[in-house]
């Protein structure tokens, strides 16, 4: 080691053999600083000395690009849409109700009503239903007056005798008065006229069905007055 180095070492380490007395602290700090600086300069010169061979160059490390954590991940495939139920078919519109057809009014059967009432009254007065045939009564009515309670025959022999046939079943007044029931004494009233004429037919022929005109029509013949 050279003398310079030895002195620096002695200064830095504070070798006692060559020192006569202790250096004051402040002076020592200055000496230490000077020694450090000198030691650094010496090191630099020492490094430069030597064989003079060129020091190998430090290869620059390859720069590795950091992984970019912020890069977006590939999007997950979208889930398949859930199957939707088939739309319900719209209900078929209700058919409009057919317009109501007017009910055909049947003609009122006045003749049938008059016959029914007359039969009821006769049964209440003891006339047997077996002797009363409503259809036979209708046959007589239609041939005698054509259903007209006010019909009057003014051309036959009875009319010539002054007692014309009157009403629904064309009875003369003497016959009507003989067979009318109490409370049914109006020759022009259809029910009263049926009662008197039917009782007369039963008394003379046994029943309305046996009247010659009724029997003739039912057998395919012609009607004749009773």
Description:
By secondary structure, the chain is mainly α. Strands 1-2 form a two-stranded antiparallel ribbon. The model is unreliable at 15-23, 35-39, 41-56 and 58-64 (pLDDT under 50). It has a domain at 121-219. The protein has eight helices and two strands, in the order H-H-H-H-E-H-E-H-H-H. It is 42% helix and 2% strand. It starts with a helix and ends in an 8-residue tail after the last helix. Residues 70-105 are annotated as: Disordered. InterPro entries: Lysozyme-like_dom_sf, Transglycosylase_SLT_dom_1. Residues 74-100 have a biased composition (Pro residues). This is Transglycosylase SLT domain-containing protein. Keywords: Membrane, Transmembrane, Transmembrane helix.
Proportion of residues in helical segments: 40-55%
Radius of gyration equals 77 Å
Q: Mind describing the biggest β-sheet?
A: 2 strands, antiparallel
Number of strands: 2
Shape assignment = rod-shaped
Cα distance, first to last residue? 189 Å
Mean pLDDT: 77
User: Helix and strand string, N-terminal first?
Assistant: HHHHEHEHHH
Show the helix and strand layout.
Blueprint: H1 3-13, H2 25-48, H3 110-124, H4 134-144, E1 152-153, H5 157-160, E2 165-166, H6 173-179, H7 190-205, H8 212-218
Antiparallel strand pairs: 1-2
């Amino acid at each position: 080691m050279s003398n310079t180095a030895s002195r620096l070492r002695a200064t830095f380490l504070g070798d006692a053999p060559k020192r006569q007395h202790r250096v004051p602290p402040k002076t020592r700090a200055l000496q230490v600083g000077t020694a450090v600086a000198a030691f650094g300069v010496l090191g630099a010169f020492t490094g430069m000395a030597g064989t003079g061979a060129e020091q190998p160059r430090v290869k620059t490390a390859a720069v590795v690009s950091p992984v970019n954590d912020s890069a977006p991940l590939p999007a997950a495939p979208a889930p398949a849409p859930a199957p939707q139920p088939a739309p319900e078919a719209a209900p078929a519109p209700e058919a409009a109700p057919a317009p109501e057809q007017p009910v055909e009014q049947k003609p009122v059967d006045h003749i049938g009503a008059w016959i029914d009432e007359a039969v009821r009254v006769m049964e209440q007065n003891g006339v047997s239903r077996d002797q009363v045939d409503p259809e036979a009564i209708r046959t007589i009515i239609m041939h005698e007056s054509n259903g007209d309670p006010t019909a009057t025959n003014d051309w036959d022999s009875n009319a010539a005798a002054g007692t014309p046939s009157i009403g629904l079943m064309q009875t003369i007044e003497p016959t009507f008065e003989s067979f009318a029931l109490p409370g049914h004494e109006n020759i022009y009233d259809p029910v009263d006229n049926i009662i008197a004429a039917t009782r007369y037919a039963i008394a003379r022929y046994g029943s309305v069905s046996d009247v010659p005109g009724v029997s003739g029509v039912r057998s395919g013949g012609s009607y004749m007055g009773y």
